[in-house]
Amino acid sequence: MHGIALGFGMTMLGVALDYPVLLIGHRDRGEGPEATLQRIGHSLRLGVTTAVLGLTGMVFCGLPGLAQLGTFAATGLVVAACVTLSLMPRLVVAADLAPSVSGPSPQLAQAEKLRRYRVLCAVPLLISGVLLWQYPLVLDTRLAALSPIPEQARRVDDALRHELGVPDASLMLAVSGVNPQAVLEREEALSGVWAHLQQQGALSGVQDAARLLPSMRTQRLRAEALPAPAVLQSAIEEARHNLPFRPDAFSAFVQDVAAARKFAPLSVQDMAGTPLEAALSPLLFERQGQWFGLVFPERVHDRAAIEHAMANQPDVMVVDMKREIDGLSAHYTARTLRWMMAGCGLALAVLVYGLRSVSRLVRVTASVGAALVSLLGVLAIMGHPLTLIHLISLQFVLGVSLDYALFFARPQLDDAERARTMRTLLTCNAMTVLTFGLLATCNTPLLQEIGKTVALGVLFAMAYGFLLAGQRPRTG
Predict the structure, then answer these.
(1) At what angle do helices 415-440 and 18-25 cross, to 10 degrees?
(2) Counting beta carbons within 10 angstroms of the beta carbon of residue 140, is it exposed (0 to 12), middle (13 to 18) or buried (19 or more)?
(3) Domain termination site, one of 299, 321, 343
């Protein structure tokens, strides 16, 4: 199981607890839970169905970790709702669970009068619209946007890599050949190209396997270039003339050079078990009968010049790792968006079928839409580009907003029932805000973003659900 599925999925406990709380909070002491479910069961079923459909984008995004998280959350919501509908009634009766405070509330009745001025909700929505126009949200599909490492730490890491001369891992060249020697000879043939690019300032050097292990042909040429013992001894005698060296001072050197002329060239197999093996194995390896050598440029300043220089080189492939990975991230983000739209369309169809009331449908969709627009307006003014993590958070906010709106919009016959709904939803809202508020205090940027986005979104969902989805108070 992926860590994100278990870790972030556990925060869904705050949402899953809503269903038993809704059952207990709407029950009068001594009332049979079947009667309570008769009043709230339809809204509860609609809520869990639309919430699960809202997670469609996550379940089918194609990324295993996020797909697990979506499945974890959806399964948790369905199980929590099933337990609430089937098992909880018996437990409620056995423990005689009911709110300690029930019945009408003068304070809540006064608060409901604010619904007469619900048209004023257009003001924050207008402000949010202006903010989104002035500071348009950008969808950041780069993989770096999902990094759990703070931006400042990433800059320090880049600076250290630059000082240490670590190659740029985002750009890689793959040289292929039928055997290791063919790859090493091909890398050596590219040395002139690297020197030319270095003169142009496109890079400062490269790291490749040929630097650690020259090809056998190069080793033989170097061995043949070594002078014969007699020639070397003569050159040494001439060089030490009038110098205070003993006559036999360089005898060991002459012997070593003579032995080196006879050494057999080193092969890849000779590196096994040596310290060089660990450095060589990532740069030279075999896959399915084909050998590959990886070349990593150092301090790249002009990617276009490198790609242009390699365009006509046979058996050499330029791989921009950053571009390829960002392309994958963009693909999965677009896929998530498409499934989100499909899930929202299905959720709307379920609402149309389940509510069968134009006025209630308008109130529910208006409150959910207002919450999402206000949340996006806050993200815009904070200067946060939207990432895949924000899309996930918006799916959770959508599900919770629908729950609140459906319960506020359901028919409530008396003041006591409206007060019970208000108290219960306030309890649910407090649990969710506290659960995700804990994530907002984390040091990990990703968890911070999730916590802040969901906590703020459910606060908006509560406010707009109360004002827009709830019934207007009766006059008099």
Answers:
(1) 160
(2) buried
(3) 321
Q: Using CA atoms, how far apart are residues 460 and 453, in angstroms rounded to an integer?
A: 11
Q: Do 363 and 264 sit in the same domain of this protein?
A: no
Q: Indicate whether 246 belongs to any domain.
A: yes
Domain check: are 315 and 179 in the same one?
yes
- pLDDT of amino acid 476: 47
Residue 87, exposed/middle/buried by CB under 10 A (0-12, 13-18, 19+)? exposed
Q: How far apart, in Å, do the first and last CA atoms of the chain sit?
A: 58
- With 0-12 / 13-18 / 19 or more C-beta atoms within 10 angstroms meaning exposed / middle / buried, residue 109 is middle
- Give residue 366's pLDDT: 94
Contacts of 456 (CB under 8 A, 6+ apart): 375, 378
Residue where the block lists tokens 């990432």: 387
CB 398 within 8 A of CB 70: no
pLDDT of the residue at 29: 74
**Contact, 168 vs 202, CB < 8 A?**
no
Pairing type for strands 290-298 and 316-320 reads unpaired
**In the structure encoding, which two tokens stand for residue 143, read together?**
């993989």
Classify strands 284-287 and 290-298 as parallel, antiparallel or unpaired: antiparallel
Which pair of structure tokens corresponds to residue 343? 């899930």
Q: Helix, strand, or coil here: 245? A: coil
- Euclidean distance between CA atoms 408 and 65, whole angstroms: 34
47 and 77 co-located in one domain: yes
Tokens standing for 360? 């209630």
Residue after which a domain boundary falls, among 264, 291, 321: 321
8 with 146, same domain: the answer is yes
| 340 falls within a domain | yes
Question: Residue 201: what pLDDT?
Answer: 86
Q: Domain total for the chain?
A: 2
For each successive 10 residues of the chain (476 residues), what is the average pLDDT? 72 78 84 85 90 86 83 89 90 80 77 86 92 85 68 73 64 89 92 89 86 92 91 88 86 91 89 88 90 87 84 82 80 87 91 90 93 92 83 87 90 81 90 86 79 92 91 62
**Nearest Cα to Cα of residue 372 among 468, 439, 441:** 468
Is 131 among the domain residues? yes
Does a structural domain hold residue 455?
A: yes
CA distance 218 to 53: 64
Cβ neighbours, 10 Å, residue 179: 13
pLDDT value at residue 368: 94
Instruction: Give me the domain span that covers residue 338.
Output: 3-150+325-469
